[in-house]
Amino acid sequence: MSEIMNLPPMRREDHGKKTLVLDLDETLVHSSFKPTHNYDFIINVEIEGRMTTVYVLKRPFVDRFLQAVSRKFEVVVFTASLRKYADPLLDVLDRENLIQYRLYRNSCRPMQGGFVKDLSRLGRNLNKTIIVDNNPHSYLLQPNNAIPIGTYIDNSRDRELLDLIDYLDNLDTYENVTTVLGSRNN
Ligand SMILES: [Mg+2]
């Protein structure tokens, strides 16, 4: 079922950078499949043969966050959602192409009734790979590479992405991120 692929080789300009793997739903945005007035943009997605309007609300500071992290990291979005939904969404969210690569559900490992994002299959140095995901199930294979983040729905006062910029700046100074992130799990 799953076709877990290595990423293409790191671009020359990203050599020496760490890889930042970002979840999409409830980490960077919240999408509603029911009409709502609380959204930043809409996309149209074909679901079960019908065109459906999806209302996408951006997490506060997501634009500033992507700008900041893309200067220091190779940025990858890894979503358990389907490509036909994630691609049109990311085309709008990331107009400046700050995200280098996109991985979708077909790159996840189905495990224990959910989708797991196995970072060991990306073709990157695990000591220099970080995942930010609101769902701990996503990183159960590599918890020492993970930065947990709260689930975003619509709290307009949410500032987790803003705080994360500084945290990642500091984490970037360490040779091996798992020594820092792993110590938080003990
Ligand atoms: Mg999520």
From TrEMBL:
The lineage of its organism: Eukaryota, Viridiplantae, Streptophyta, Embryophyta, Bryophyta. It comes from the Eukaryota. SUPFAM superfamilies: HAD-like. CDD domains: HAD_FCP1-like (cd07521). NCBIfam families: HIF-SF_euk. This is FCP1 homology domain-containing protein. Coiled coil: none annotated. Residues 13-171 form the FCP1 homology domain. InterPro entries: Dullard_phosphatase, FCP1_dom, HAD-like_sf, HAD_sf, TIM50. One of its GO terms (molecular function) is phosphatase activity.
